[in-house]
Write a structure and sequence with these properties.
Length: about 240
C-alpha cells in the first residue's frame, strides 16, 4: 500500500516513520510512505500557503490555488488514483470499521491542514474522504494522519508477525468487547497475586475466565459497546 502525506510540517512524521514496526514494514515492502511539503507548491516569493478568511474572523485559511495543484501533481506520481483523505475535525469519525475500509485501498493520499483549515473549494474540487479522529481539538491534521497510518498498516498482510493478531483485537469487526486483563511473571508483586485460574493449566476454565473478565470490564467501562445498538452506527455514512 502506498501512503502519500501532504503537510506543511513533514518533520513531525520523521521520528514516527523511522521507529519499530512501521520502519520494518517499509523495509519488508508491505507499505511505502512518501512525505511532501505542500509549501513546495507555493509559487510566490514569500512562499505563501494561507491567507485571511473572507468575511473576517480569526486564523488563516489554506489557499485553494496552492493545495489543489499540489494534490493533483502528487496524485499523478503513481498510476493508482487512490483515495484522498482530508484530516479535519469536521470529518466522519474514525472507527475500526473505517480503518478496515481504508486498508482495502491500494493508495491513500493524506491531506493535513493547520490553522483554521482549508478553503472549502479544496473539498468541492477534490471531494476527499473527510475524517476526524475524535471530538477534541488538535493543532493540525499531522497527529491524526499518524493515527490513520498506524491503525491501517497493522491490517496489511505481512506487517504483524502473527497474521492473526489483528483479527482478535478489541474493535475489530464483530468484536464488541474490551480486551481481558493480562498478567506475566512474577506471580505475586506487592501482595497482588495473579488470578489462580490463569495458573491452573485448564484452558477451558481460562477461556471462561477471560470471557467473563472482558464482559465485566466492558459493562463497567464502555456500556455503549454492549448496548449501543447495531455496530453499523459506529460509522454514519
Ligand atoms: Cl483529523 N484534525 C484536526 N486538526 N483536529 C482534529 C482531528 C483532525 N480529529 C480530531 N481533532
Amino acid at each position: 500500500m502506498r501512503f502519500d502525506i501532504l503537510t506543511l510540517f513533514p518533520g513531525i512524521f520523521e521520528g514516527y516513520l523511522s521507529e519499530s514496526i512501521l520502519s520494518d514494514a517499509i523495509k519488508k515492502g508491505a507499505l511505502e510512505v512518501n512525505l511532501y511539503n505542500m509549501r513546495d507548491w507555493a509559487n510566490d516569493k514569500h512562499n505563501t500557503m494561507d491567507d485571511r478568511p473572507f468575511g473576517g474572523g480569526p486564523g488563516m485559511v489554506l489557499k485553494v490555488d496552492r493545495v489543489v495543484p499540489c494534490v493533483e501533481e502528487v496524485r499523478s506520481y503513481d498510476a493508482r488514483p487512490g483515495r484522498i483523505v482530508m484530516m479535519t475535525p469536521q470529518g466522519r469519525p474514525l472507527t475500526q470499521r473505517v480503518v478496515e475500509e481504508l486498508a482495502r485501498e491500494e493508495r491513500l493520499i493524506l491531506l493535513c491542514g493547520r490553522y483554521e483549515g482549508f478553503d472549502q473549494r479544496v473539498v468541492d474540487i477534490l471531494q476527499p474522504d473527510e475524517i476526524s479522529i475524535g471530538d477534541y481539538v488538535l493543532n493540525g491534521g499531522e497527529v491524526a494522519a499518524t493515527v490513520i497510518i498506524d491503525s491501517v498498516m497493522r491490517l496489511l498482510p505481512g506487517v504483524l508477525g502473527d497474521e492473526d493478531s489483528a483479527t482478535f483485537d478489541s474493535f475489530s469487526t464483530g468484536n464488541r468487547t474490551l480486551e481481558e486483563d493480562q498478567y506475566t511473571r512474577p506471580r505475586e508483586y506487592r501482595g497482588l497475586a495473579v488470578p489462580e485460574i490463569l495458573l491452573s493449566g485448564d484452558h477451558g476454565l481460562i477461556d471462561k475466565w477471560r470471557e467473563a473478565n472482558r464482559r465485566q470490564k466492558t459493562f463497567f467501562r464502555r456500556p455503549d459497546l454492549l448496548f449501543g445498538g447495531d455496530s453499523s452506527e459506529d460509522d454514519p455514512q
